[in-house]
Amino acid sequence: QGQEKLSCNPKKENGTHVVLCELGNPMKEGARITVDMELSVSGLEDMGAAITFHLQLRSKNSPSPSNASVTVTVPVEAEAEMELRGNSLPATTVLPTSWHWVEGSRRLEDHGIKVEHVYELHNKGPGTVSGVTLSLAIPHLLGNHVLLYLLELGTEGGMNCSQHPTLNPAQV
Fold first, then answer.
1. Could you tell me the residue ranges of all domains in the chain?
2. Residues 107-162 pLDDT 10s
3. What burial class does residue 51 get, using C-beta atoms within 10 Å of its C-beta: 0-12 exposed, 13-18 middle, 19+ buried?
4. Nearest partner of 37 among 17, 58, 23, judged by Cα
5. Which of these, 74, 131, 162, 172, has the minimum number of CB atoms within 10 Å of its CB?
6. Where does this one sit in the cell (predicted)?
7. Pairing label, strands 116-126, 141-142
8. How many CB atoms lie within 10 A of CB 33?
9. Burial class (CB in 10 A: 0-12, 13-18, 19+), 112
């Protein structure tokens, strides 16, 4: 007939988390009630694809055959927004028209102007993420000519890196 807020108490029983809610006392025989519950659960990042709740209506009266339980499975969906930021140092590079690659040289300046590309992957939340794969395609060849000579590839922050193009093939 009306709406009431329930008084619920969380506690641990037999190693599981239990929330007990008092629905009413005394309750008349044949009474029908509907309960809408909203639960806020944190720390579900590693719980898998779903979380299961076991719901049971228990009576404090003498043994009741209606102490049936219901299992409800709710899918867990993590939400996180990723952002990729990148820049090049220097931002603009102009090669002199008279410059040529010096074949066989081990001096860095004979192979071009150093340009460093830095990429930062940020998690803007609200959830945490793991197992993220970032693929960067770097055009290091233009036809049969070297466009960018790749010296090194590094990461920070506990990330793993796998590289496909050969880095520093002339060992400059």
1. 7-75, 78-171
2. 887 777 888 989 888 888 887 777 778 888 888 888 888 778 788 888 887 777 77
3. middle
4. 23
5. 131
6. Membrane
7. unpaired
8. 10
9. middle
